[in-house]
Each structure stands twice: as structure tokens, then as C-alpha cells.
Amino acid sequence: MNKILVADKVTKSFGNHTALQDISLEIPNNCIYGLLGPNGAGKTTFIRIINQITYPDSGAVYFDGKPLEPQHISLIGYLPEERGLYKSMKVGEQALYLAQLKGLSKQEAKKRLKYWFDKFEIGDWWGKKIQELSKGMAQKIQFIVTILHQPKLLIFDEPFSGFDPINANIIKEEILELKKNGTSIIFSTHRMESVEELCEHIALIHKSKLILDGKLSEIKKTYKNNIFEIGLQTANQSEFLEHFKQHFTVKTSAYDALEEQLNFTVQLPSGNTQELLNYLATKGNISQFVETIPSASDIFIQTIQSKA
Amino acid sequence: MNKLPLIIKREYLAKVRNRSFVIMTFLSPILMVGLVVLIAYLTQINDSEKRILAVLNESDYFENDFNPTENVSYIQLKNLSLQQAKDSVLTMGFYGLLFIPDKADVVSVAADSYLYTKDAPNSGILERLERIFEERLRQQKLIDLKLSAADFAEMDQDFEIHAETFEGEQNIKGIDLVKAGIGGSFGYLIMMFIVIYGGFVMRSVIEEKTSRIIEVIISSVKPFQLMLGKIIGTALAGLTQFGIWIFSATLLLSLVWLFFDIDVSGIQTMPDLPGGTVNNLGPSTSIASGIQAGFDMINEIPFGLLIISFTIYFLLGYLIYSSIYAAIGAAVDNETDTQQFIFPIILPLILAIYVGFFSVFNNPHGPIAVGFSLFPLTSPIVMLMRLPGGIGEGGVPIWQFVASILILIGTFITIVWLAAKIYRVGILMYGKKPSYRELFKWLRY
Lengths: 308, 445
Prior knowledge:
heterodimer, A: alpha/beta, Rossmann fold, Alpha-Beta Plaits, 10 helices, elongated, B: mainly alpha, D-Maltodextrin-Binding Protein, domain 2, 2 domains, 4 strands
């Protein structure tokens, strides 16, 4: 069984509002799984169902092959988007409390906390109250508390919010490190560049329905539509373009007369580039030939808009 | 796997370490004792002020009636005209002048007597003087009716009716006041505890919401566990506070009495009776025996039953109300939004106290008393006010006691279940102030 989490036709509604409708997806072991979708799509509800904060009206969720049960809570770590800590409680005490709630013994929690506090060089925060810390500092504590019990599955909802770029990078490195050590990670965010950077799989939820899921690289393959960016050095571009357009679909073109450089994009009917390249080679020096691959952001926007 | 003790511990410590809680805990007994001492002290000052009253007695009566007491002493003026007497009283700074004219009989003497004072006369002194006159007039009337002093003394004797229950239990008279005191203070204690510590529970829930820690916590524990832990932890903190209050107040009070020698009993003792023939026959003896009887009656009160039922009613009542408070805290985003929900909760509590004081004490087994001691939102208070009379014959019928507890337990389960549902949904709702209608909808989520 190499799926850490399987959702089977999960449906959840609040009153008249349907939050999730027949969501079925499989999250592979030891990968970073991006859970995407516009605001209000139902991501948080889905995450809460995994955390057994709410329960589906119908459908089932399987954790590591078994139906989700209360005892799985200690195997899951959750960093919610709406997060915070007791303001008037001391950092160390609070971290210990939250770790113990996840089932760690006090001694074990202390030992692990010491390791992380040393690693992040924040040992002197132990006796401070949360309200004395800055937001970024509190977020670090929160991150440590989330991963301290070494869960099999980690769920991060907008983990980088509240961090400056340096600290965001530290957290990103930690997430990659966790993945390397075998943890499966669900990653929910609106920041598409981090999706691009981190996620191997994605799922896109829109208006309570799952509209897209799979390996990011494969999704990209299906979303590319054989558009190529070509740079060609040629003296008489108008003659070339006129002739070229009879055979191929040119989308845009720009000519730099000084450099005698023509840049244009062309859409091919299939992925076969042989014919095009052969033709171009006779016309001049090819300075650039790139297939345009849609970004995660493009896919996101395109998919959502096509469903609207 | 059992995380409840962890939560209780955290909630308890969070409450107990809170600065305002610590200050309240240690300041309140001092304030309370200070207040009692102040009242006692002021009463003493008031009492110890000795007033001198001049008496210009031109009649043949009242010669030996003005005997000095703790607060008033009398100076007999002789051979002065009324105007001279007034002047001298003013210059001497006496409290006032009592003028008794010379008339044919005591009735007309009394009718024409005047009390002159600088300001409106002190009601205590006025009462005392009036009593002297009344007594003398009564005596005169009896003498007119040819009654001897001995006859008169006999006539004034107190009479007590013998009372006992059908089982032959004696000493059941007068118990009502003591019982009412005990029942009333138990009921009042429960109400105060619910209002204060229910409020703490509510604020603690709101704090978890506003600090956004709630979702972190409930991804580890069930919302119901968190709610229960919070309610229990807060209650323990409250009991700690009460314990400290009772202990330190007792300690402080006894220290104060020891060092300052303030006579508390002075606050309650009756004013001295006027001198004269009736002095020995006054009701003082019956007061003493009444106190003695009161002590006997206290022994009659079923303390074991009271303490057990206090614990039961207190626990169930607190649990019901504090889970409602928790649900309210979960439903709103900040404390200002709680008003509309709190009023309906406080209402039955206040009602219970008023019903208790005005209806239950007079008629502990009347329909109002029975109704309110069965109704679960008022029964913890009202039933405790009825219970000092005992259970069974002459007290609360057993079926009512059992029914009231059963109803309370049933309500407890229902309310906690409903409150937990509202709580579960509410803690994750931000940014809107829900209506009752919406709360009702949450119950079905």
C-alpha cells in the first residue's frame, strides 16, 4: 500500500451549502501533494475532515490503507491557516502541552524540543510568553510544534505566511528535509511559485468539486498545446513570414531589424517538430527553439476559467 | 490517549496564574474583613456617643423613670422656667431638653410634654422616651382598673405555644429562619459561582478563538474534551479561590477579633429595655431561650443531606450553565457580542433567587416552590432553599427530591450535548455574529 491517504467520494455540506462533493483522490506516500483551489473551494473543509475535526456526510477516508480513526490523530501533523498560540502562556510550556496532546511523553517532548530549539537557535525563547514574540517568531514555534511528534502525514496550510524570505527559505528546506526522511506532505497554498518548487502531485478543487489531479509534470504535458517559441536570424523577415504562414499557424511575431532577429511563436497541430525544424534550417540560423510549458499558475487560472 | 487531565491541568494553571485572579484571590478576604471591621467599628462609634438629655420635670410623675443607659444620661433640672432651662441646655451643649409640665393627672402631663432638640431628634432616643411614657400611661390605666402591680406583672407574661410534629419531634419552631439562612446562602453561593466562573469559561473560549489556537488544539483532541477540560479546570480554580477565601477570611476575622477586641455581638443585640418595674419582665429572657432553642434547632438541620445535595446540585447546575456559557463563547468573536445571549441565562438564576427569598421561605412546599425546585434551570438554587427542612415527612417529599435530581441529570446530558454541538461548529466560525436562528442551524451540522 503506497498511498498514505485515499479519499473515496467524500461529500460534506453545511445546511444548504455544499462544501465538498464526491471528492475522490489518492495521495501517494512520501510525496509533496499540492492541494489547490480558489478561496472557498472547500480545501479547508477537506483538510479538517482528514484531521477529524469534521466528518464527511458520505464517503470514506483511508489513512495508510485503513479507515480513518481517532488514533490516527497522532500520526498526522496539521499547521492550519488560521493558527495561533496561547498569548499569555510561556513558549516552552506551551510547546510541551501541545506535544503531549499529540501523545508524546513529557520527557520525549522535552528532548525533541531541545533539538529543534537548538537547530533554530531559539533556545532563549523558552521562558518567554508568546505575546513577547514577533509574529514570525511565533510561526517558527508553531512549525516546530506541528512536526515535533514526527507524523507520517503533515498538512501545511499556507505555511509561509508570516515569514520573511529568509525564514520562509529555512522552513522550505525543513519541509524538503522532512520529505526526504519519508514524510508525506499535503501542501495547500495560493502561492503558485512554491507549488512549482515543491509539489510533485497536485489536486485542484473548485466550487466543492475536484476538477484536476495528478502528477504535476503529467498535468503540464496535457496542458501544453504544442506552442513553440522560435528565434530566427534572417534578413528579410516579411518574405519569410508570408511564406511560413502558408504552412504553419503563427501566433505572435516581432522583428528586431538591427539584429536581424525574428522572434515568433507558432502552434503546431501535433508535437512533431521534425518538419518545422527541417524547414527552418533552410531559412537561416535558429537562435532559439523552445516549447512553452504552462506554469502551475497558468494551469490554475486556465482550468478555473474554463469551468466558470 | 486520555488527554482530559492534560487539558484540565492547563486550564487550571492558566486561570490560577492569571494576575488578576491572584490579586482577586488574596485581596478579597482582606477587603471583606476590612469591611466587616469597618462596619463593626462604625457601629461602636455610633453607639458609644453618649448623649445628655436635660429633663425639666415640673410634674409629680416620672420621678424615677429616667435612668441612665449606655447611650443616654439624664440631668434633672430644678426650679427653672422653661425659657431658662432652654437657654442653659443650649449653653451647656446638652443634646436636648425634655419638658414635663405640672398637670392634674399623668395623661394630661404626658399630652403636654415636649422634647426640644437642636436638630431633628435621634430616633433611638425618641423611641426610648416614648416607651417610658407609654409604660407609665399603661401602668396608670391598669391602676385605674384596680390591678395590682403583681397582677400586672403576671399579665405581661410571655406565652409560648408548645409545638411538635406528629412523630413527637420537638423544637421545630423558629427553625425556619435558620433554615432560610442556610438554604439561602447555599443558593446564593451557587448562583454567584455560576455567574463568575461560567463567565470565566466563556472568556477562555473566546480567547482561544481570537488567538486562533483553537484549530491547532482540536486537531489533537475532540472539541468536547476541550470544552469539558475547560469547564472542569475553571471549576477547580474557582474551588481553590473559594477555599482560600474561606480559610483566610476566617483566619483574618479571628485575628482581628483577637487584637482589636471588637464585639461583633454588639451589632446584633437588642437595645436595652427601659428601666422601671417591667424591666425584669421584658422579653430578654425569651430572647435568650430563643437563641438556645436556635442552637438546638441547628442540630435538627440535616447537614449530611444538605452537604451531599449541595454537592450534587452545585455540580450539575454549574455543569449545565457553564456548558451554555462555553457554547456562547464559541458562537461569538468577542465579548461585546455576548450580551444578547447572556441575559436569557442569567434570567432563570435571578428568578430562582427571588422566588427563593420571597416565596419559598414563606411556603417551602407551595406550588411555586415545588415548580421551581423541579424546573432544571432553577432547581439547584430553589431546592437547596427547601432542603434544610429535611426530606420526607415535614420536609421535601422524596419523590420531588428524586424527580428534581433526575430532571436535572436529564437536562444536564441534553444541554451539554447541544452546547457541545454549538461549540464544535462555533469555534471554527469567524467574523460573523450569529443569530439564534443560526445557532439552531448549527445543531444539525
